Amino acid sequence: MLLHVSSEKVSKVMAGLLVLNGCAADIAQDVAELLPKYLENIARGDVTPNARPELLVSEGHLLQFHAHNGFGQHAAKIAVNAAIGRAKLRGFCLLTLCHAHHLGRMGHYGKMAADQGLVMLAMSNVTGRQALVVPWGGAEARLMTNPFCFAWPFNDGRPSILVDFATSSMALNRARVMSSEGKQAAPGYLLDADGHPSVDPGVLFAATPGALLPFGEHKGFGLALMIEMMAGILSGGSTIAEAHQANGSAHNNLFALLINPEKLASEVDVKGQFFADYLLATRPQREEAPVTYPGMQSAKTRRGNDKTIPVSDTFWSWMIEAYARKGILLAKAA
């Protein structure tokens, strides 16, 4: 059963629970989205809850930050906001962030940049956990899901283009849901623990786990390889070769380029809008499913959740119990 709770209430109670577990209020506000997992990470010592990002290098177009094992969503917010200011001033900014706990959804940072009229290319490698994705042609995992983001703004009111995807054949959470529902994956997505093709997403959660294949065969592997080296090495961080453990927590390094398009080309807005119109005018395969560009659906979802957020009654019950353990009575969701 889904409860529809005010967005403001959900944000406050989730951030409040992080504060009760030792997190500074401003950091808690940035990272509350993945609350249950993050509370577990705090308890295990996987993250330093009050660590703040340190600016290591600020030279011209270059900004480099070190997160010091702090919450990635807070560190990245600080770093990306600094890069937005630098790109507006100088035309572009090359940004890196190393040794952060889980950064969360890459598209969030792309939207931050696009909302300020900037183009963004960003990529992040994943360390700290056991490898999950095989190199193309391999029979055992050596990489993680290594996500990539591209954002392009429009100034005529339409949603920004927002491309945000992992370089694995599917997300791990999607595989977990499919496994719990007894569903099979399409061929070409999974290998079992012996390196044989499988359609059972449960192989990823076996005692000896299987692995995901890269999306797009050798092309996805090539992108994952690029991301691992650009984000893991150029950031001053690490690659998964150096930093992985069987029961570890996800950590990230970030490499991003933020561009002020008006500094580089004329008629940026007119040309971008014309290209978007050109795409949207494509004759669809099915009349009831018109062609869209990445970012349109997520913008529609955000508008739908502007005032309330659908929350499962199971999750809200967990919240009530978590507050009760701290001696606080949390009211039931309205």
Outline the structure in words:
- The structure is a single chain.
- The protein is an alpha+beta fold.
- It folds into two domains: 2-168 and 214-325, Malate/L-lactate/L-sulpholactate dehydrogenase, NADPH binding domain (Ribosomal Protein S8, Chain: A, domain 1), CATH 3.30.1370.60; 178-210, no CATH class.
- Helix content is 35%, strand content 19%.
- It contains ten helices and twelve strands.
- It has helices at residues 7-20, 25-31, 35-44, 72-90, 106-115, 172-180, 218-232, 268-280, 296-304, 313-324; strands at 2-6, 54-59, 62-66, 92-101, 119-127, 148-152, 161-165, 190-191, 197-198, 211-212, 251-259, 308-312.
- Strands 2-3-4-11-5-6-7 form a seven-stranded mixed beta sheet. Strands 9-8-10 form a three-stranded antiparallel beta sheet, with no helix packed on it. A two-stranded antiparallel ribbon has the order 1-12.
- Strand 3, helix 4 (72-90) and strand 4 form a beta-alpha-beta unit.
- The two termini are 13 Å apart.
- InterPro entries: Mal/L-sulf/L-lact_DH-like_ah, Mal/L-sulf/L-lact_DH-like_NADP, Mal/L-sulfo/L-lacto_DH-like_sf, Malate/L-lactate_DH-like.
- Keywords: Oxidoreductase.
- It comes from Aeromonas sobria.
- This is Lactate dehydrogenase.
- Belongs to the LDH2/MDH2 oxidoreductase family.
